[in-house]
Design brief:
Length: 455
Amino acid sequence: MAAWFEEAVFYHMYPIGMSGAPRENRQTEVTHRFPKLARWLPHIKELGCDAIYIGPLFESSTHGYDTKDYRMVDKRLGDNEDFRGFVKEAHELGIRVIVDGVFNHTGREFFAFQDIQKNREQSRYTGWYKGIWFGGNTWYNDGFSYEAWRNCFELVNLNLQNPEVKDYLLESIHGWIKEFDIDGIRLDCADCLDFGFMEDMRRCTGEWKKDFWLMGEVIHGDYARYIQDGTRLLHSVTNYELHKGLYSGHNDHNYFEIAHTIRREFDSNGGIYRGLKLYSFVDNHDVDRLASKVNIQGHLPLIYTLLYFLPGIPSIYYGSEWGIQGRKEGGNDDPLRPALDLDELEKNPPNPELTEWICTLGKARREHPESIYGEYRELLLMNRQYAFARVQGDEAMVIALNNDEDQESTIYVPVPVGGKGYTDVITGKECKEENGKLVIQLPPNGTVLLSNREM
């Protein structure tokens, strides 16, 4: 039986931003913003998503990745009881909940680092961090130096080979499962994490909760290295390689870029990640919004079609289902992480056609398991037209796209599985066949989904 995450469509929530919480955590009282976040749950369900990646959540100094306390929900969002209620409400709607696990580093306000500041060489926590040297200094002028993530000295690198550190973090994760009933963790900076730590985490979380999911943020390098045989390390990692191709392939009217990436990654003959389930996305809290990256807004539905039907686990970043804009401003990520008023968005949606199309894609994906589990087969490839199939046994789904914004296109596509006719998944109209080929008429900036499944 397949694990739930193989079929899931994720909705990505950055809670500090979307709830309108202050960017700096200077308050002593708790502000209960989880009711505002929970208000999104019916919308997420209606959109067709059945899992949420939400984070960072735990007490931090600023953006959430400079952790102060792994065991307390950030007071700008609420308290532990608030988050427990949020997860319960999500579960009642059939939505799983994944949280951010920031284990490569802590913030400077974390208790262990503050003990080192206070007690210096006498601190029992000097071995909790990498590179503590009392002969050095940083621009914070602590009177000692340390390793930091990408030399961002507000983020102090933990020593994950220290048994005390490892035990502390695993106990924290166990507490998240027991107290909140979460379903998985997205590992921040997984490409920096100690492999022994990740292996212990996989073993422990599998014992603590069946089908607990571990997904790593990996930008460059060999994704398979972090998954290996699928049983000892992570279940999935982020597919940044595909993310780039999805928008640039449309900006250049070049489907060859996208198809080459898929061949390299997932082709049944030689694909380096074939059989693996990578986490796919078109934007997130660290990169420009898709609507700000594409040259032609009419390409948005095409890109989401590929997100849903190319191999991978699709994820929607909050607000992007309406095509909202957002670009980084230098090193400032705030424009990517805005506060949004759901009531106003539902009342006056910026791009209702896109939202409706994403709902349609989710419904088609749920009703056609072959689109999830089927082998990828490239059927036709040109700069502006692209067709492929997902084939499972004698059932097939054909996805055809035309990125030409000015002209319709008629394409002739080999029938991937014979013996049954193909119909349009959305309209129910039969597709004409000639000499063993499907005759597909694509409108400008158009997509056609065909299936031979009897519905």
